Amino acid sequence: MITVNIYYTGKDGSARKFAEEMEKSGTAEKVRAEAGNLRYEYFIPMDDAETVLLIDSWESQEAIDIHHASPMMKTITELREKYDLHMKVERYVSKDTPGSESQFIRE
Q: Model pTM?
């Protein structure tokens, strides 16, 4: 699994407005319905009202590449520009939790 954390930052609540429009327009739901998408959720950091975190998880790099090549990316890019957002991206490749760490995880 590959997880991409995208921090969208803007001014005057624009990052939150972007996320709200992604949800209300159905664009976020369309991403969730794409083959290989495992998670697509927005979060608001408690200490930064001008940033929204998107957690975006995929089964494989191939699934991400197909998503990036889709016409939906044009819609997402246009919304980013509409709200004048800047992005910081983190990428993680998941592995099974090692046995030594499992004692600290409450499920």
A: 0.86
